[in-house]
Design brief:
Shape: globular
Order of helices and strands: HHHHHHHHHHHHHHHHHHHH
Structural class: mainly alpha
Number of helices: 20
Low-confidence stretches: 1-13
Number of strands: 0
Helix content: over 70%
Distance between the termini: 20 Å
Strand content: under 5%
């Protein structure tokens, strides 16, 4: 399918930004901030969770595998739910589920109950991002979408930031139950505000008719989105850019810094917070640049992937496995750029899919990074169990080979689909069709066509 706006459907129903739009967005993005906090909370609480539930690395990784696996699995159903019920209802349900899941996690003492709590959290978390993007698409003009998306992702980093040093201090002083109980209850109560203040469309714009998608047509809709080269490229961009920094932030970064690198817990939390701080600072800047120069978005992603490969080569190949602290800080800071770079995936999806299929295509692309996290988190945990007699630095080097392999796979597939997506754009231009981004043919495009 050529990359164009199908049936001439306008991307957005508004041509200007209003205060009401920012208010609705702020209300919605707060749920996303809470979602990122709940998602990342196990990153610094992993060692406490291991003691509380009496489990080893493989079982500990199952918490994240289950939560993120459900998140990935729910992305396409979430897109369909948003198309059917609207983002306000879906976002309200998400806040309730996350609140209940975290309360259950706070009170759980058995491993199965802890798993159930993380499963509920994963389902609620899965329903947030697509809903926020759909609201942004409805309330902001096209020229603002990339910036609003980048701001949303950066503010989500605030939830991740709270889940580093502040959460470590809270766990040390208030304890497990009180910390997670308050966080869960506050999220559940906030759902009422979402229901009252969020609106599906701007004032004066007709409410869209609910779109009921029969089960027999779901596969066809997903397949239609997947056939678009821009959607496939978005999937692999998200897979490669988002997965490795998220894997470190969600579960294995903190244990790696403490056990393999010999850092004190506060120092490890500070290094881990770089994954968030760098993303918060660079996200809006990258979003503004991409909004003004959309043709730069894939070169930015490719440049990041090249540097990320170098960073992982340092982590895996440094003699003795223990890196100097300044170099370790630099590596984590560079890897953090993957979070804002992953936003390119959703810009691609929005540009190359018709509006009625954007939520579904967004869910498809969002699966990429979280599927990679799910697999890598499990494999790292299993490998750590298998090589347990080894020194910690060596054990993590072996386990992190799985992450490096996943990254190299993603780099390969991103390169393949970047070339194919560019070929589709050139073919559409030759047919006289309008394309969302003007790009120049390069020598390697000619070679790709040959």
């Amino acid at each position: 399918m050529p990359p164009h706006r199908a049936e001439g459907t306008p991307a957005l129903p508004v041509d200007r930004t209003t205060k009401r739009a920012w208010l609705i967005w702020a209300t919605a993005v707060t749920v996303y901030i809470a979602a990122v906090f709940h998602r990342a909370s196990l990153g610094v609480a992993g060692l406490e969770a291991s003691e509380r539930f009496g489990v080893g690395p493989a079982a500990l990784s199952t918490f994240t595998v289950l939560q993120i696996g459900l998140y990935a699995f729910m992305q396409i159903p979430t897109g369909l739910l948003v198309d059917r019920f609207g983002p306000r209802r879906v976002l309200t349900a998400a806040a309730l589920l996350m609140g209940l899941g975290q309360v259950l996690f706070a009170l759980a003492h058995s491993y199965p109950l802890g798993l159930a709590a993380r499963a509920v959290l994963g389902v609620g978390d899965a329903m947030t991002w697509v809903s926020v993007l759909r609201l942004a698409a409805a309330h902001f003009p096209p020229r603002r979408f990339t910036l609003v998306m980048s701001l949303s992702a950066a503010l989500g980093g605030a939830g991740n930031l709270v889940a580093t040093v502040p959460l470590t201090l809270l766990l040390d002083n208030a304890g497990w139950a009180a910390t997670f109980l308050v966080a869960g209850a506050a999220t559940a109560v906030y759902s009422a505000l979402v229901a009252l203040r969020v609106r599906e469309v701007p004032e004066g714009v007709p409410q869209p008719e609910p779109e009921s998608v029969p089960l027999r047509t779901i596969a066809r809709r997903v397949a239609a989105a997947w056939r678009v080269p821009g959607t496939r490229l978005g999937f692999w961009v998200h897979y490669t850019s988002m997965s490795t920094p998220a894997l470190l932030g969600l579960l294995w970064g903190f244990p790696y810094l403490v056990e393999a690198q010999g850092m004190a817990r506060p120092e490890a939390s500070a290094v881990l917070s770089l994954l968030v701080v760098v993303a918060i600072v660079t996200g809006p800047v990258m979003g503004a640049v991409i909004a003004r120069k959309p043709e730069w978005r894939m070169p930015i992603v490719v440049a990041y992937l090249v540097v990320a490969v170098v960073c992982w080569a340092l982590l895996l190949g440094w003699p003795g496995g223990v890196l100097p602290v300044p170099l370790l800080v630099a590596v984590f800071a560079v890897l953090a750029l993957g979070n804002p770079a992953s936003g390119v995936a959703f810009a691609l999806v929005r540009d190359y899919n018709p509006l009625h299929r954007v939520s579904t295509a967004t869910g498809v692309a969002n699966v990429g990074g979280f599927a990679a996290i799910t697999v890598c988190a499990l494999v790292v945990g299993v490998l750590l169990d298998l090589v347990e007699p080894m020194p910690a630095a060596s054990a993590y080097r072996v386990a992190f080979l799985a992450v490096a392999a996943a990254l190299l796979l993603g780099v390969w597939r991103t390169t393949v689909w970047w070339r194919r997506a560019r070929a589709a754009v050139f073919a559409a231009e030759e047919r006289g069709e309008q394309v969302p981004v003007q790009i120049r043919r390069r020598r390697w495009d000619v070679l790709a066509d040959a």
